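DM from R.C. (forwarded with permission)

"hey, sorry to bug you on a friday — could you get me a structure for this? deadline for the figure draft is monday and I only need the backbone to look sensible"
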Amino acid sequence: MRTAITLFFVLALTSCSGASPTPVSLDALRSVRAAADEGERALGVPADLVLAIAYSETRWQLPEIEEGGAHGPPTIGLAGIRDSLEGDPLSRAEARVGIDRSEAETDPARSILLASAVLAELARDRFGGAVPPANEPGLWREVVADYVGMTGDLARQAQADSVMGILRRGVEGDTADGTHLVLRGRTVWMPEVAVTLGASGDYAPAHWVAASSSNYTTGRGGNSIRYVVIHTMQGSYGGSISWFQNPSASVSAHYCVRSSDGDVTQMVADTNTAWHAGNWTYNQQSIGIEHEGFVADPGRWYTEAMYASSAALTRHLTTRYGIPRDRAHIFGHVEVPGATHTDPGSGWNWDHYMMLVRGEPARPAFDAAYAGQSIPTDMNEGERAVAWVEYDNTGSGGWDIDGTRIGTWSPQDHPSVLFDLENWMNDHRASGADHDYAAGARGRFTFMVHAPDVDADTTITETFRLVQEGVAWFGPEVTISIRVHALAAVDPDADGDGTPASTDCDDTSATVHPGATEVCGDEVDQDCDGSDLACASMGDAGIGSDDAATAPRDGGGARRDAGGASGGTSRPVAGGCSVVPGSANRSFILASLVAAIALVSRRRRR
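My reply, with the result:
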């Protein structure tokens, strides 16, 4: 029924499902993001979907797994590709994109494109050759479950919820190729499909998904439950659930705990013996709890949500079975006699975990104290600048680059006027933590600010607060202030003559502007004074001009030209040019001075 519902939407929204395959360009694989984009372009697989799957599987890393240390199926590359899926989609995907699985084990970008190809093959298998639209990742829900080999409605729903939750909330972090990747939150629509959730009979908050009966032993051989063993999956939540369902796995645990939110799934009843400790005596006398993640990467996986959820489960078990709440009875897989595994590793915070198990008064998991900031005090509108805020981690839990962020506050999650489109995760999340920060450390949150356009100089204020996504807002409010200066309107100078258009009578000619020299008789007003006045050397009203001598005078005694003008207006002179009265004097004086100098020079030579 689930597949039929989804297939209806796929066929309704998909066109060109029979089109010829688009060639894949391996030259485009410059980064993990570029590889995902190429998978969408050439294969029709949503880029953000394959990146969300990869984040769910490995946090965008190439995991380091000790020999024989995996608690789940063997996986390949950043996106945790399985090589044992029904129908062998991996081999078909390798042929489609020309990438061998061995390349995907060491090349982050190629592993992402190969994962996209596997998803495309699974989609065609499920939907009769059709591929759901790349702009509707929710329609890929069943394919996401197929990708990790999930069986059973609840397990498939849990895997889909995990991946779609990443798409909805958005994540960011460093990838194995050294780039920083931001997956922005988005709306994900999925067809409504009713799923009956199984309930654990031993622990009410847990889901129930049964492990294969081939992977555990019924009963405990008459032994009582004396210990709790802490494991790390060396893989993803969905991957381990799927693996324990696989009859050939020969491994299981009683409980699995998810990193992002502490979700718990029970797979083996408490009264039965799960195969988890590698020591039959301890298997019969213990409860095994698997935790999502990798021993070599605790900062990305051992979240406060997982610590709190696991500790609540362990506290319940110790109460129910009378197990002492101490490290002699609650310990890691590495501490089981004869163990060949190292989980949960040195990155597991035993002090914090045991404090939670015992229910002792503790500092809040997430708390902070303001430590400082670097914010530009003045910016011009349109400018971008780097800013940061520092806090001391005064809580009991660590901060991580993916889940701990600085967001807008007062009101919560409001769109910020300082939002920088190229840098922020969205308009109300400025940044994640720069690094992972343990309890007691000082953490920095660095982001860009973009000065908005303003009509006049304006002081912009913005309030921020820390948030552990999906858990809580915490720490003090921090307000920043930036004086944004309006840019003055620019007076253009199109002709480049040094005079702005507002005062230039002709901004298309560099020879016409106030102060320019007039050109005789060209009928152009070079100096922008309102008239074409040149030819000053042809004569003047006071120097031998018959016209000047006989020109009529106006009522005030000033001479008028033939047209009746007076004062500073032009008048005709010999040659037909116009001059302003007195303009000829300068030329006449200059000519006289040159003549006098020549005469003196000639007399001296004599």
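R.C.: lifesaver. DSSP finds 15 helices and 22 strands in the chain.
me: no worries. The mean pLDDT is 83.
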